[in-house]
Amino acid sequence: MDPTTQHEAANSLADNQESETSASANGHAKANGSASAANGSAQAAKGGANTPNGHQPSSVLLQRTSDTDFRTVLSNGLAACRRNVFNAAIFSFVVNVLLLAMPIYLFQLSDRVYTSRSQDTLIMLSIVVGGAIIAHVFLDMMRRFILMRVAVETEAKLGAPVLSAAAKASQNGSNREFQMLGDLQHLRSFITGPVILMMMDVPVAPIYLAATFLIHPDLGWIVGGTGAVLFVIAIVNQKLTAVPYTQANTFAMRANLAADAMARNSQVINAMGMIPEGVLIWGRETAASLKAQVSAQDRNIYMTGLSKLVRLFTQIGILGWGAHLALHDELTGGMVIAASIIGSRALSPVEGTIEGWRSFVQARSAYARIKTLLQNSPLNWERLRLPRPEGRLTVERILYVPPPTKKVILNGISFELEPGESLAIVGASGSGKSTLARMLVGSIIPTAGNVRLDRMDLRNWDPRQFGQSVGYLPQDVQLFPASIKANIARMREDVTDEMVFDAAELADVHEMISHFAYGYETQVLIDGTPLSGGQKQRIGLARAFFGDPRLVVLDEPNSNLDAPGELALAKALSRAKKRNITVVAITQRPALLQSADKIMVIKEGTAHAIGKRDDIIPLLTANGAGRGAPLSTASEAFA
Ligand SMILES: Nc1ncnc2c1ncn2[C@@H]1O[C@H](COP(=O)(O)OP(=O)(O)OP(=O)(O)O)[C@@H](O)[C@H]1O
Ligand SMILES: [Mg+2]
């Protein structure tokens, strides 16, 4: 990639990011303000500055400006690319027509120069053909430059939307969507590859064909007939190879997923000597992929060989039949050679297309996958930027039945929390607590019923604004490979150190962090080292409280904590209460219950009991379950 192209790509990516940054700038303004009225005007001031269509937003309601509609990226964003591909196609046409200069030169030499013996004609012809060849080379370079830029622009334009849409789509638990970035690279290498040029040469084939007809109809028929045969071979080739190529791709994708899984579980694999099994699983998928690949490639080679044979025989046919015609004085020798050159020029793009058919099919299906992903992304629907939520959480008769199983996981749970109220959820393992937590932060959608924040269904919140108003600590905490500071700041770059410190203070992790040699700048690796399990959980807690969220959902925040850690958690919860943050905490341990206003007992997906803390605790501790016993047993005793 040359420097200009790189620069353009970087610019294009930066364009995409700019909107993101302005969105976070909004969030920043909000997070810094304390009174909500002040927040509103800060938002409006920021929003007014970057509302593209210039209409003044009201002070409270602010049209979101962050995410672009991905469908417009496909239509308008790629319009320039389409136009440029069209330009390249026109260049290709001219490039190929100019190539006719060579046979015409030959033709003229044999028919005029040799017969007239004119030196001047020879010089003139040579100058003209030289000019045509220079123009040909120049235009050929131009079309390659254009295509290179189209490729880079396509990747730059689609990169950010594809990754965003993939991240959104993967919240249902699959990470297959992330492979779409590979699809994007496929698309780019196709556009810069030789096949697309071959395909652009195909429209000129009729002109060459017409030229051979002009030389002699018999030769035209030979070339035309061969073209038809090659076309049939191309179709048969496509039919024969489509299935094995698809299989090869599917297996290759599965092999990638297997290798990914190995990378994620590297500790387990090494500790228990599972490398051979991991390799075996990966190897099985890879072998299947290679087998399908070989079968497809074999068929492709047969077809390519056949088409080459046909084409070479055509050459012989043209020369042989041309010589026969020359013997009968219907043609000159120069015309025969010119016809042979023109004929092969007419057929070579057809043959090239047959050979490159595979990469075309791949690029086409890669584009189709990207298109489906972008068109169906839930991020497409524009939502109003609402006033900053207060933190009133309403859950109305939610039912959750995930599609393939038809198993009811959550059934008819309803409750309401006022801003600043806290709810502890207890229940046996597998009773649906984590599922409920994920639903409260909008990462899974209930089959029926609603979850509302400040009376607005979660689905109708602008995802970015909602995310900034919510904190979530999952049961299995994963941190990003970055510094502790960046992890607490949710990887945002527009934050002040005070905001990070504030979250650390709130979650009571400042002292723990200060014990690391590099403090907040300590780098966390992909597997969480150098943090212990409990430390990771506490950093996750600080991340959940970052940016003054209004609703915080904690999934077993104390599962890895020691006594001081639990004490810190209790302090964090009481600080959250002072700041009017609504908290939902799932727990298996009794200590946390003392910090909650309300308690809900879940049993097999239904709310078995819900009420004030002091009403529920006696029920839980009744039937002889001691205070120190894990709550799963306590709630079972209660049941
Ligand atoms: N997408 C899904 N498809 C099918 N079943 C699911 C799905 N998600 C969760 N489940 C099932 O829902 C039940 C509740 O799971 P959940 O993770 O919410 O339990 P939990 O109460 O958090 O348990 P634990 O205390 O062990 O964390 C489990 O039986 C689980 O198998
Ligand atoms: Mg759980």
Report what the structure shows.
With 639 residues, the chain is an alpha/beta fold. The protein has 3 domains: 6-62; 71-379, ABC transporter transmembrane region fold (Up-down Bundle), CATH 1.20.1560.10; 389-638, Rossmann fold (3-Layer(aba) Sandwich). It is 63% helix and 10% strand. The protein contains 23 helices and 12 strands. It has helices at 3-32, 36-50, 70-77, 79-99, 101-116, 119-169, 180-192, 194-201, 205-215, 217-264, 266-271, 275-327, 333-355, 357-376, 433-440, 463-469, 484-488, 497-506, 510-514, 533-544, 563-578, 613-621, 631-638; strands spanning 62-63, 384-385, 393-400, 410-417, 422-427, 448-453, 456-457, 470-473, 551-555, 582-586, 598-603, 606-612. The strands form 3 sheets. The protein has a 6-stranded mixed sheet with strand order 8-9-10-5-11-12, sandwiched between helices. Strands 4-3-6-7 form a 4-stranded antiparallel sheet, with helices on one face. β9 (551-555), α21 (563-578) and β10 (582-586) form a beta-alpha-beta unit. The protein is elongated. The model is unreliable at 1-67 and 623-639 (pLDDT under 50). Magnesium ion (MG) binds at residues 433-434, 475, 555.
